[in-house]
Amino acid sequence: MPSIALTFDDGPSRWTEPLLDVLAKHGAQGTFFVVGSIASARADLLRRMVDEGHEVGNHTWSHPALARDCDDERVRSELQRTTNLLIELAGVRPTLFRAPHYDVDERVEAIAAEVGLRHVRGDIAPPDWHPGWTARLSITFVLQQIHGGSIVGLHDGVPPTEAEEGLSRQLTVDAVAGIVPALQERGIDCVAASELLDTA
């Protein structure tokens, strides 16, 4: 059976729980790249992710542009703090990270490797963070491009710097509720991102 990975950045948030409900309903796995400064207050959601068989990855501590704005020490700190938090709160040591804004280069990847992390791309990344976007557009965007081995980049939360702007991720929840059953009808399985990377 062909497999793809649904990945989610910037959480956990109040939209993570309904998203987990959707995945559970369909028996689908996801990979959640969490922001440490946000996740520190949502241990319940971290534990639920792990308990329900989802993968938890590292999305830095405070969501900076790693390659553009961070020196080596800051890159290491951003990644190490979140890894330490996930070990403490969820009992898991992440092996994957996603750089905010996909802002990654060889330097950042080398530092991440020292922390035990490798970067995960997003092959199909609809702008589900954009206020003018819709769930229907995300569904169409993903289903038109999907193929075995694809990694889909979505957002279940809002970066800490944008948290006061009244943004919603409900459209992502609604999109996933449409995407997952459509994939299953095509015989495509939703698995953890690491499963795809390990077979690439």
Please describe what this structure looks like:
The protein has 200 residues and is an alpha/beta fold. It has one domain (3-199): Glycoside hydrolase/deacetylase (TIM Barrel). The protein has 9 helices and 7 strands. The chain has helices spanning 16-26, 36-39, 43-51, 66-69, 72-90, 106-114, 135-145, 170-185, 193-199, and strands spanning 3-11, 30-34, 55-58, 96-97, 118-119, 151-155, 189-190. The strands form 2 sheets. Strands 1, 2, 3, 6 and 7 form a 5-stranded parallel beta sheet that branches. It starts with a strand and ends with a helix. The relative contact order is 0.23.
The gross shape turns out to be: globular
Structural class: alpha/beta
Report the CATH superfamily: Glycoside hydrolase/deacetylase
Characterize the biggest β-sheet: 5 strands, parallel
Q: Counting H and I runs of at least 4 residues, what is the number of helices?
A: 9
Low-confidence stretches: none
Give the topology string: H per helix, E per strand: EHEHHEHHEHEHEHEH
**Whole-angstrom Rg:** 16 Å
Helix content: 40-55%
Question: In total, how many domains does the architecture comprise?
Answer: 1
- Overall CATH architecture: Alpha-Beta Barrel
- Strand composition percent: 5-15%
Give the CA-CA distance, first to last residue: 15 Å
Arithmetic mean pLDDT:
95
Strand runs, count: 7
Give the CATH level 1 class. Alpha Beta
Give me the CATH fold name: TIM Barrel
